[in-house]
Amino acid sequence: MASAKTDQTEALFSLESYHVSEELGFILPDPLQELPPYYQPWMDIALKIPELAQSHELRSRINKMPLLSSKFLQKHKELRLAHLALTMMTMGYVWEEGEKDTVEILPRSLAVPYWEVSQRLGLPPIITHADAVLANWKRKDPDGPFNMENLELLVSLPGGESARGFFLVTLLVELAGVPAVKVKMIYLSGWKDNPCMPNGLVYEGVQAAPMRYSGGSAAQSSLLHCFDELLGVKHDPKSASFLIYMRDYMPPLHKKLINDISLQPSLRSFVQQQDCKDLNNVFDLCVKKLLALRSYHINVVSRFITVPAARARQLRDQNHNSDGEMISRAPTALEERGTGGSSIMSFLKTVRDQTKDTLLSEASKEIKHHS
């Protein structure tokens, strides 16, 4: 009986059945770099988004793009690359001129195939962590290591090395978490709860009414959700509601894995029942590692999002527009809200503190934070 139960458990958590790799975790292994020739008009634009946005030609190029059928995309990796290319074109199209000159309608030639591919993948038609990070990488040297020096983005957004670093560092964080499961930030902003686009965005040829979607966010990382469920981190209703909503922006099988973990008996309760100091210490060490990651995330967000955005606001208020156009395009919506639509700093600190509450040892809960 015990053997049968073990086999059943192993079958339930076969990583491959969730599109999770023992080597790379939630990262898509070896993403395609090219689509079938029929879709070359998409790739011709997607691979030049930074240059076209810089020259203010991106919207006009997309407006002239032919309407292509998605029916010739057959394999999962073809769909993921198509979704990535269409995603980056959409974000570039909406935010090319900054938040002062957004659009209300996404043209049919982009909106229709984007919607079709999204439906087939079970992803929303907006940038997600699954696109910009998990499926957006290649090795410069195919036989070289998986590190910063040997990695490059498949499709980029304006921002140069800052954008490259933002996405690739996040990718390496995902890779670092694999053993546990064996920025031009305006271009990540969505059109849900965003004062720059209060009416949302019309996907022409899909439906007449505007749609509202949140932008890409680390809250969409399946890895962190798995850690929370495994360790038994409990969030307040408001934070929990937002995090559960973010799961709708994950690949469906990744979302299913998180749910399946949540249905298992509590690991934290099991450790408590053993009344073993060493086991308690090991559990608390795992929680402390997650706590340290979340504290570091707060520091990174403060340094690269909230502080620069506040500085840009100060320059606007003082009319010291030394950087001209770029200051006027700085993302004011991100000064208090993240790319996913959350009240960014208060949310991150709340989630961090709730992670600390998961510690078993009262002494461990006295950990000091520097933010």
UniProtKB/TrEMBL annotation:
<dbReference type="GO" id="GO:0046872">
    <property type="term" value="F:metal ion binding"/>
</dbReference>
<keyword id="KW-0349">Heme</keyword>
<dbReference type="GO" id="GO:0034354">
    <property type="term" value="P:'de novo' NAD+ biosynthetic process from L-tryptophan"/>
</dbReference>
<dbReference type="InterPro" id="IPR037217">
    <property type="entry name" value="Trp/Indoleamine_2_3_dOase-like"/>
</dbReference>
<dbReference type="GO" id="GO:0019441">
    <property type="term" value="P:L-tryptophan catabolic process to kynurenine"/>
</dbReference>
<feature type="binding site" description="proximal binding residue">
    <location>
        <position position="297"/>
    </location>
    <ligand>
        <name>heme b</name>
    </ligand>
</feature>
<dbReference type="GO" id="GO:0020037">
    <property type="term" value="F:heme binding"/>
</dbReference>
<keyword id="KW-0408">Iron</keyword>
<dbReference type="GO" id="GO:0005737">
    <property type="term" value="C:cytoplasm"/>
</dbReference>
<dbReference type="InterPro" id="IPR000898">
    <property type="entry name" value="Indolamine_dOase"/>
</dbReference>
<keyword id="KW-0479">Metal-binding</keyword>
<dbReference type="GO" id="GO:0033754">
    <property type="term" value="F:indoleamine 2,3-dioxygenase activity"/>
</dbReference>
<dbReference type="Pfam" id="PF01231">
    <property type="entry name" value="IDO"/>
</dbReference>
<dbReference type="GO" id="GO:0004833">
    <property type="term" value="F:L-tryptophan 2,3-dioxygenase activity"/>
</dbReference>
<protein>
    <submittedName>
        <fullName>Indoleamine 2,3-dioxygenase 1</fullName>
    </submittedName>
</protein>
<comment type="similarity">
    <text>Belongs to the indoleamine 2,3-dioxygenase family.</text>
</comment>
<keyword id="KW-0823">Tryptophan catabolism</keyword>
